Amino acid sequence: MMKHIFPTYAQYPMEIVSGHDWHLVDNQQKSYLDFTSGIGVCSFGYSNDKIEHSVLNQLGKIWHTSNLYPSQLQDDVANALCPEGMLAFFCNSGTEANEAAFKLARKATGKGKVLAFNNGFHGRTYGSMSLTGNPDIQAGFKPLVPEVQFADYNDPDALSAITDDLAAVILEVIQGEGGVVDGNGDWLKQVAAKCHEQGVLLIIDEVQTGIGRTGKKFAFQNFDLDPDIITCAKALGNGLPIGAMLGKKSLASAFGPGSHGTTFGGNKIALSSAKAVLEQLTPDFLKGVQKKSKAVFDALGKKVLPLSAVDSISGLGLMIGIHLNDSVKVADVISHLQQNGLLTLSAKHNTLRLLPPLVMSEADLLKGIDLITDTLANVDATVESSLI
Ligand SMILES: *Cc1c(COP(=O)(O)O)cnc(C)c1O
Predict the structure, then answer these.
(1) Last residue of a domain, one of 232, 249, 280
(2) Same-domain check for residues 202 and 254
(3) What Å distances lie between residue 34 and 42, 177, 308, CA to CA?
(4) pLDDT by residue (tens digit) across 295-354?
(5) SS3 content of the chain, % helix, strand, coil (to 5)
(6) Distance CA 321, CA 299 (A)
(7) Where residue 247 sits, what CATH number does that domain have?
(8) Is 336 touching ligand 1 by the criterion CB < 6 Å?
(9) Which of 150, 152, 204, 329 has its CA 20 to 30 A from that of 173?
(10) H or E element at residue 339
């Protein structure tokens, strides 16, 4: 369909042309229940009045001023976003947030080595791609940024790789692109403890798991961890491009004037959206996400897990992985679901990944789970009949 665009993405046949609440409409007027939120971006759905008002209000004032001038809006959003004792650096994406984290960690510690994990995903620019433990993503782009080491996620042996010659360890609390792999809580705590003991900075990549996705503001708060640096992006602007790197105040002197920068980062339009997102991310809202999550995981356990196409289910909050066995291809399941009016995502290892808008009603969440149940049950039946 697109003749003037690099063929970087394998695309579905339809274009999404409008949306409301948590429903999307394509160019053939077919509507879909959305279990994708873009890719974990539009957590407040497609018609959020508070975000719209905040952005429209800012559009009428000023769009861009450069970072040569202070911005009260940046300071307010940083205050709303940062855990106690942290400062923010705003950028435009997840990969940029991780680039900033990588640079800050090296500069602050004076050390070069970083430990990352197999199946982790941190982005596509050179630094963050070099931290991404997926050979398919790195293929053809070598040489990568040197001195990045990898260990197996959730592996107790990885602890021995955390030594005092590392600048940092970077990880996701739940690996998203890597297949919705749940971090083991005890292991995560041991990693954090070893980092602190060895003087190694702990960078937690919350680009996908942050901003309420797991029922907490940040996913690490489910496990009582104490990161030195946090990166976020995706859901922070509900669709406007914004990323942020948050770091402990003790790191401030390594990121002084001239050390790092960005023209668009901290842009007032993107920030006006993030402000309205964070204002709505209240403890009550997060409790609501936890309650809906419980209903969804109950339904998944009762209806989806018993199906012969399904090996296991993972995730937390409204970040969900349904691990399909080899008899079915996740791409086929996704296109069947599209025909049945439900948009879903995949992740590595034949995983059907669900990232519905956090504002979706419990009734529609359960409706989506029923569509998945029916679709996978049909796939099951086809698999069984083809065996006969
Ligand atoms: C999506 C993602 C990124 C990259 O974010 P971009 O905005 O696409 O650059 C980094 N880390 C994680 C965990 C992600 O899910």
Answers:
(1) 280
(2) yes
(3) 10, 18, 25
(4) 999 999 999 999 999 999 999 999 999 999 998 999 999 999 999 999 999 999 999 999
(5) 40, 20, 40
(6) 14
(7) 3.40.640.10
(8) no
(9) 329
(10) helix 330-339
Residues 205 and 308 in one domain: no
Mean pLDDT of all residues in the chain?
A: 97
Question: CB neighbours of 94 closer than 8 A, spacing ≥ 6?
Answer: 122, 123, 128, 205, 207, 208, 231, 232, 233, 234, 243
- Summarize pLDDT for 132-177 with one digit per residue, the tens: 999 999 999 999 999 999 999 999 999 999 999 999 999 999 999 9
Report whether the peptide linkage leading into residue 143 is cis, meaning its omega lies within 30 degrees of zero: yes
11 inside domain: no
- 172 Cα nearest atom in ligand 1: 13
Q: What is the pLDDT of residues 196-247, one digit of tens each?
A: 999 999 999 999 999 999 999 999 999 999 999 999 999 999 999 999 999 9
In this predicted model, what pLDDT tens digit does every residue of 71-125 receive, in sequence order? 999 999 999 999 999 999 999 999 999 999 999 999 999 999 999 999 999 999 9
Which string of DSSP letters, residue by residue, matches 261-324?
Answer: --SSTT-HHHHHHHHHHHHH--HHHHHHHHHHHHHHHHHIIIIITTSTTEEEEEEETTEEEEEE
Ligand 1 pocket member 94 (CB < 6 A):
yes
Would you say residue 39 lies in a domain?
no
For residue 175, which phi and psi values (nearest 5 degrees)?
-70, 120
Residue 313: strand pairing partners: 322
Question: Ligand 1 centroid vs 94 CA: distance in angstroms?
Answer: 4
Is-contact 317 215, C-beta < 8 A?
yes
Global pTM exceeds 0.70: yes
Q: Please give the sequence-ordered ranges of beta strands (E in DSSP) within 51-180, or none if there are none.
A: 86-91, 113-117, 148-151, 166-171, 174-175
Kindly state whether residues 293 and 252 are assigned to the same domain.
Answer: no
Q: Is the CB of 93 under 6 A from ligand 1?
A: yes
Q: What is the rounded CA–CA span in Å between residue 334 and residue 194?
A: 41
235 and 348 housed in the same domain: no
Question: 62: CA distance to ligand 1 center in Å?
Answer: 28
